[in-house]
Amino acid sequence: MSPDGTAPRNGTTSPGGTANGLGTANGDGTTNDDGTTNDDGTTNDDGTTGRRATLEEKARRRAMLIRAGIYIFATHLFAGFVLLLFALGDRK
Description:
mainly alpha, single chain
């Protein structure tokens, strides 16, 4: 039983006495139920290590922002082209 009165999900506790299922970092080599970072570099439930998971998340976020910027630019370029067509079509 952990200090807050809840039982750990996988039956072990971290050195601080808190349950692993609560998302705290482990120092005893066990993995968290929610895939959070481990202090000793052990593998999370999703198959990634803590530091690598953070770097992958940053890379995905950066790629998403770049992709969003390209989509916004392309949309504005297309809208400008449509406005140009209307302007040229309106001339006599």
